[in-house]
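Section 4.2 – Deliverable D4.2 (structural model, holo form)

The reporting period included a commitment to supply a predicted holo structure for the target in complex with 2-acetamido-2-deoxy-beta-D-glucopyranose. Inputs used:
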Amino acid sequence: MEPEKPYYASIMAHFKKPYWVFLFLLFTVITILSIQMSTESILPFQFFRVSGSPKPDDVADPGSCAGLFGELPVREHVMSIKEFGGVGDGKTSNTAAFWKAITHMQRFSNRGGSQLNVPKGKWLTGSFNLTSNFTLFLEHGAVILGSQDPKEWPLVEPLPSYGRGRERLGARHISLIHGDGLTNAVITGQNGTIDGQGRMWWDLWWNKTLKHTRGHLVEIMNSRNILISNLTFLNSPFWTIHPIYCSNVVIKGMTILAPLNAPNTDGIDVDSSTNVCIEDCYIESGDDLVAVKSGWDQYGIRIARPSSNIIVRRISGTTPTCSGVGIGSEMSGGISNVTIEDMNVWNSAAGVRIKTDKGRGGYIANIIINNITMERVKIPVRFSRDSNDHPDDGWDPKAIPKIKGIFISNIISLNSTKAPEIAGLEGGSYEGVCFKNVTVLGLAPSAAWHCEFVSGCTNAVFPLPCPQVQNNGSSTCCL
Ligand SMILES: *[C@@H]1O[C@H](CO)[C@@H](O)[C@H](O)[C@H]1NC(C)=O
Ligand SMILES: *[C@@H]1O[C@H](CO)[C@@H](O)[C@H](O)[C@H]1NC(C)=O
Ligand SMILES: *[C@@H]1O[C@H](CO)[C@@H](O)[C@H](O)[C@H]1NC(C)=O
Ligand SMILES: *[C@@H]1O[C@H](CO)[C@@H](O)[C@H](O)[C@H]1NC(C)=O
Ligand SMILES: *[C@@H]1O[C@H](CO)[C@@H](O)[C@H](O)[C@H]1NC(C)=O
Ligand SMILES: *[C@@H]1O[C@H](CO)[C@@H](O)[C@H](O)[C@H]1NC(C)=O
Ligand SMILES: *[C@@H]1O[C@H](CO)[C@@H](O)[C@H](O)[C@H]1NC(C)=O
Ligand SMILES: *[C@@H]1O[C@H](CO)[C@@H](O)[C@H](O)[C@H]1NC(C)=O
Ligand SMILES: *[C@@H]1O[C@H](CO)[C@@H](O)[C@H](O)[C@H]1NC(C)=O
Ligand SMILES: *[C@@H]1O[C@H](CO)[C@@H](O)[C@H](O)[C@H]1NC(C)=O
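Output (C-alpha cells):
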C-alpha cells in the first residue's frame, strides 16, 4: 500500500528513540490500516457546492476563503486617525478621535466607501463602532490599546439568543471594536496589533468582583460581508473575535494571543452565523482556539438562528485547558455543515470537543473533521453531555439536542493520555458518528474508549474502538 512509507516516516520523525513496544504498536496500526483502508473519498459532499453557497466558479482557489470575500475593497476616501486629533503616544485617549472619524466617514458608506488608517504608534482608546463600506487599516507598527477604564467599555443589551450576559445577569460590556448592522466592513493591515489589555478584566473575574459580562475584543453583529485579516490580536478581556447573526464572514491570516491562563479568551467564536470561512491563523489562548455556537437554552431555541456552512482550515496553536476546536456547548439554534481541516494542535486538553446538555435543544449535524495532527493533547476527541450551565431556571429539561453525522478522518495524535470519549444524552445519542484513519498513540495499555449513547462506525482506528462504533464487517461503514 502506497502511503505506508511516508506515514511511517512522519510518525518516526516525532520520536527520537523508538523502542520495541512502540515499533510493535506501529506495526499493529499499519496492519490495521492495510486491512481496512479504502480508497474512496470520505467527504459526503463538496462543501462549496451546497445550495446558498458560492458556486464553484466563484471560488478562485478551492483551498481558500476567496470565494466568500475576494479582493480587498478599494475605498475612495482614505484618511488617517491623526486628521481627527488622534495622538499615538500610548497615554492620550483616542476615544473621541475614533468617534469623530467614524461619524465623519459614515457619510461615505454609499459614496465609494472609506478607509481609516492607523499609523505606527500606540493608540489608546475606549470602545468604538465601525460603519459600512469601511476599512479600518492598521499600518505596520500600529498598536490599538484597549482602555483600562471600564466606563470606556459601556454596557449594552444582552444578546437575544443568550437572554442575559454570558457571565453575569443583565447588560454586558460592549466590545472594544464593535459593529452592528454593517455591510462590507474590513479590519486589516500590515500586521498591526489590537491589544485589549485584558489583565484588568481577568483580575475582576479571578477575584470575583466582575459586575457585568466582559467585552470581546471585536464583536460584529447582524452584518454581512465582513473581513478580518493580517493582524495580531492580543489580550482580549473575553472571547477575542465574535461574529454573531452574520453571514459571509472571512477571518484569515490572524495571530491571536492571550496568556494561557487568561480566562475564556477564546480565539474565534462563530455564533449564529452562516457562510463563514476561517483560515491560516495561529492562536494561543486560555480557551478554545475556534468555537462554533448558536445561542443558549430557551433563549437560543426561541431566536433559532443556526450556525451553518462554516469552514475552518489551517489553524494551529495551543490551549492547555481547552480544545483546538469546540462545538457548543451553546448550540440551541442548531449547528450544521461545519468543516474543520488541516489543523495542528499541541499541549492542549482536547483536540476536537463537542459539548451539549439537557435544555439546549437545537441540533448538531453534518460536521466534517479531517487531517488533524495533535501532540501532547490529553483527550484527542471528546464529545460530552454535561456542560451543566444554564442561563436561569427557565430551561426545559425536555429540550434534548439532536446530533447526527459527525465524520472524523485522518487524525494522528501523539502522546495522548486518553482514548476518545463520547458520551451522549439519554434520548439524544451521538448518531452517525464515523471515525476513519484515527490513530491515538502514547496511551497506557489499559486506556480504552469511553462510549455512552453513541452509534456509528469506525474504519482503521487505533486503539480498538468501543463496540457501539465497531465496524462489524459492514461494507457501508464510514462511506
Ligand atoms: C455600500 O456600497 C455598495 C456598492 O457601492 C452600495 O450598493 C451600498 O448601498 C453601500 N452600503 C451602504 C450601507 O451604504
Ligand atoms: C455603538 O453601537 C452600539 C449599538 O450597537 C451603541 O449602543 C453604542 O452607543 C455605539 N457607540 C458609539 C460610540 O457610537
Ligand atoms: C505578526 O506579528 C506577530 C506578533 O509579533 C508575529 O508573531 C507574526 O508572525 C506576524 N505575522 C506575520 C505574517 O508577519
Ligand atoms: C480585583 O481586581 C481588580 C482589578 O485588577 C483590583 O482593582 C482589585 O483590587 C482586586 N480585588 C481584590 C480583592 O483582589
Ligand atoms: C494579507 O497580506 C498579504 C501580504 O501582505 C497580502 O498579499 C494579502 O492580500 C492580504 N490579504 C488579506 C485578505 O488581507
Ligand atoms: C448543508 O448541506 C447540505 C448539502 O450537503 C444542504 O442540503 C443543506 O441545505 C445545508 N444546510 C444549510 C443549513 O445550509
Ligand atoms: C494536513 O494538514 C497539514 C497542516 O496541519 C498540511 O500541511 C497538510 O498538507 C495537510 N494534508 C493534506 C493531505 O491535505
Ligand atoms: C492517515 O492519517 C494520517 C494523518 O493525517 C495521514 O498522514 C495518513 O496519510 C493517513 N493514511 C491514509 C492511508 O490515508
Ligand atoms: C512523547 O513522549 C516520549 C516519551 O516521554 C518523548 O520521548 C517524545 O519526545 C514525545 N513526543 C512528542 C511528540 O511529544
Ligand atoms: C457491533 O457489534 C457489537 C457487539 O456485537 C454491538 O454492540 C454493536 O452495536 C455493533 N455495532 C454496529 C455499528 O452495528
